[in-house]
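Repro case for the chain-ordering regression, as requested:
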Amino acid sequence: MTNHVPPGPKSAILGFDFAARFSRDPLTFLIEMTGRKDPLIYLRMGPVHGYIANAPEIVHEVLVTKAKHFQKWAQQKRVFGKFDGDGLVNSDGEFWRRQRKLVQPAFHTKRIREYADVMVAFTQRQIATWQPGQPINVGEQMAYITRNIVTKTLFNSDVAAEQQRIGECIEHIQYMAFREMGLGQMIPDWVPFKYSTAEKQAMADLDALIHRFIRERRESGEDHGDLLSMLLMAEDDKGERMTDVQARDEAMTLFIAGYETTATALTWAWYLLGQHPEAMGLLLEEVDSALRGRLPTFEDLPKLRYTEWVIKEAMRLYPPTWMFPREVAEQVEIGGYPLKVGAMVYLIPYTMHRDSQLFPQAEAFMPERFAPDAPKPIPDFAYFPFGGGPRVCIGNAFAMMEMRLLLATIAQQFRLFPLPERPAAVPEALITLRPKGGLHMAPVPRLLVQEEAHTEMAQV
Ligand code: HEM
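-- result from build under test --
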């Protein structure tokens, strides 16, 4: 061991300057910090002592080999816990291990492949409402589709009014959680008006609905073919099942974690495709030759390879979970340095994914870098949009399947064009990484695009 504290930026005012810069513009600040190239960086921000994991080996140590020395960030647990209790995202230790085992079977490939048709059908239903050339808010459209998909696959809810209400409730909850991660945490819960009447009603309604879904499944004892049925049927080593409260917390967790991330990744994929017509051309070629005019199915996925690289590359440049923290739970040495118990470790896909030593031409959109025979293989844990180790995203395969099917279904029928008056998108680091001010594009049916191209050619 060389020193007790890893290298890091110096502050004359206990890192309060860094805290201010982080809250003003976290992405620029973190790019500057990680540009130092030290594998582990000590960063104090006011009262918070932290370390940035700035090399793939360090990420691997934290997430995999020494994962048990870390826990979820107490602050995040407190905030999210208000909405999804002790669900997977918030729990730690033995309780988390048991719950993870119980939830895992719901995400087995055998089970999730059954959702492919739902994903395509819900996409189809929504794009049928698009008017040629009429700009859409891409993020909102993607979120509408992915939210309906998660409602259907989690609760098998088909009733339009019910779906609508569930959608509204979850939107409120996302917004409340976002406020709570920021200045909202300064306001104690007992303060009247902290949450609006509509927000309180949304929480109560969603709770009542989930409990009703649980009751219906318990009473019928049948598998409704949805994720909730799987949660309720799962048994641990002692043959015990989840209580209603645990099932409610896990269902709410999957609901909150399960759609915005996916929608954000898709939004960036559309943005990047709009900026790179040659990549769009390759995508369309693949989709057309793989599907020959049919809608995609689960069986088509192996043929949609370029589609998959586009999504992976979009998540490299704009990882929806741009940063996620860990808290040091017990004495541990990382990268040869002893870490302070209670300190934070920041895992930052956004900066690692843009490191030019790990990704040649790191700022360029190059989906083919994910090809298995790419000239420079991506080192393990240099690319980690879904985290890694025992706490890797449980919805990883679900999300990858969903994003490929959505992109292919839409690309088969529409071209999304950037609006000429809109400047380049700027990422905004909220809970997820979104294009600031939203992304607006004009969908034009492919048939019309081709006709226009033919007319242009005829004129030439
Ligand atoms: C593009 C889409 C998605 C991205 C980028 C993403 C990203 C992540 C990341 C980075 C983590 C690890 C966080 C950490 O270690 O602190 C995580 C965990 C998790 N994700 Fe996802 N996720 C996505 C989609 C989904 C979906 C579709 C679901 C469920 C339907 C889901 C459910 C979860 C859950 C429950 C956890 C906690 C797992 C645990 O701690 O055991 N995610 N996700």
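Ordering looks correct now. The mean pLDDT is 92.
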